[in-house]
Structures are given as C-alpha cells and as structure tokens.
Amino acid sequence: MLDFLGTVATAALIIFVISTVLAFLDVSRQAKIVLAALLGLWVGVAAAGSAAGWAAMARPFPIMALFVAAPLIAAIAATALPKARAAMLGLPLPLLTGMNVGRVFAVLFLLVAAEGRMSGPFPHSAGWGDITTGAVALPLIWLAHDPARSKAVLHLWNAFGMLDLVVAIVLGVMSAPGSLLQVFPGPGSEAMTHLPLSFVPTVLVPMWMVLHAIIWVKLRRA
Asked: Which of 129, 144, 158, 172 could form a disulfide with 189, with the two C-beta atoms 3.0–4.6 Å apart?
C-alpha cells in the first residue's frame, strides 16, 4: 500500500514541478519542448536505473551519487548561457517558494520506517526536515510577494530547506548498505534505492536544490 501511495505522490510531485516551471519559464515554445523532452528523458533514465538495480550499487562508488549530481551539473552548466540564466531568475519568488509545499509528502519516509524498511537517523531527519520545510513554505508564499520586507525570514527558511536536503544526502550515504561510508546498520536508507522512493533522490532532490539556489540569488538581488 505504501508503495502505491509513494508512486502516486512522487509521480504527482514530478509532474507538478516540471509542468509549473515550464509554464512560467520565459523562453520560447521550442525551448520548452526541448526542455520537457530532456526532463522526461531524465525521469525515464532514473526509473530504468532504479529498476535495473543500478541505484542500489554502492561499490566501487555509490551510483546514486551520479543520479543526484548529473541534473545539478546540467543546471549549473545552463547558467553559463545568459538567456537560460535570465529565464531561471525570472521565475516568480512566490512560485519557487510554493513548489516546496509538496515536500510534506515526506511523511512517507516515517511510514516506511515504521514498517521496518528504513532505519537509523535518515528517515526521521529527512522526513521531519521536509515536512517542516513544506509546511512553513505555505504561509511564506504571501511573504514572498514582498521579499524586501521579509528577506531575513525567507533566507532562514531557504537555508533550512537546502540544509535539510544536504543532510539527507549525507545520512542517506552513511545509511546505505554496502557503502564505503556506511555507519548506521541496515536496512538504513536502502528503500530509497528502489522505486518509487528512488525518484526522490534521483529527480526531486536535485530539482528542489536548484529551486533553493534560484531563491537564494533572487533574495540577494531583492
């Protein structure tokens, strides 16, 4: 049942974030089609990699790290193009903030941990961190309409949200069975290497990290 709910939640979040960004991105229709195709291809690659068991491979190095790093590197490379950089910074701040509300679905981490399929500090840190970030994002949508007056609050929330993702990655690696850096005993974060939860580190986490980076730049310029 949790896998069913997880599939619905992750698929809905991926579709929501991608479609919303494409709708508000100030680029040509052709560019949106190309970007949609590339993002769709990446989702397919992430799904295939998880289904094939690649995401669970931890030696000689964690393959999951490549899935997390690849979209981040692509986003950083895109900032070298003035039009792409301007389009990303043109996304409305309330929209960027509001897209984090979906992180409340991380309650699934706590439910999976309660079933005994995840253990250690990872599910609780990632779960409560995401839930807090998502819940606080809802009232901050209105503050984001006037960032100059609420910059400190938005900066604090944005830093917390990004730190939550970074800590989740670190604890995930330290909890991954077979990882050279494993500290916590199994099952640890093993469930995150299998569908549907594998969509979180391979697709959703990189997208949310990019959103946090854009928010930080926009607040600096506010």
From this structure: 172
